[in-house]
Amino acid sequence: MRTLNDALNKRIDELLKEKHMTRYRLAMNSGLPHSTLKNIASDQVKVSRLSTIIMIASGFDMTVSEFLNSPLFDEDNLNL
After folding, report:
1. Is residue 75 part of a domain?
2. Which of 19, 24, 35, 59 is buried most, with the most CB atoms less than 10 Å from its CB?
3. Number of structural domains the chain divides into
4. Whole domain around residue 44: which residue ranges?
């Protein structure tokens, strides 16, 4: 089972690879500081705010629903 932050980090990695983007480009597109994305990646952030997830989804040019539409976020796969 994954934590929510682990699922978020894995989803970001999936989409970066799929869209051929860097974390720096995602930071620029989303308006988030690059350091925030680095902190999520290094598991220094234990709980991400919904506003952060919305900005990340926006940085991928996706809705939050599209971003969260992944088996990574299924209740059965998360340690809530």
Report:
1. no
2. 59
3. 1
4. 4-70
Q: What single-letter DSSP state applies at residue 47?
A: S
For residue 78, the 8-state DSSP code is B
- Using the 8-state DSSP alphabet, how is residue 45 labeled? -
Q: Are 2 and 80 in contact (CB under 8 A)?
A: no
pTM above 0.70, yes or no: yes
Residue 6 CA to residue 42 CA, distance in Å, equals 10
2-59 pLDDT, tens digit each: 888 899 999 999 999 999 999 999 999 999 999 999 999 998 877 789 999 999 999 9
Residue 70 contacts residue 11 (beta carbons within 8 Å): yes
Asked whether residue 79 is assigned to any structural domain, the reply reads no
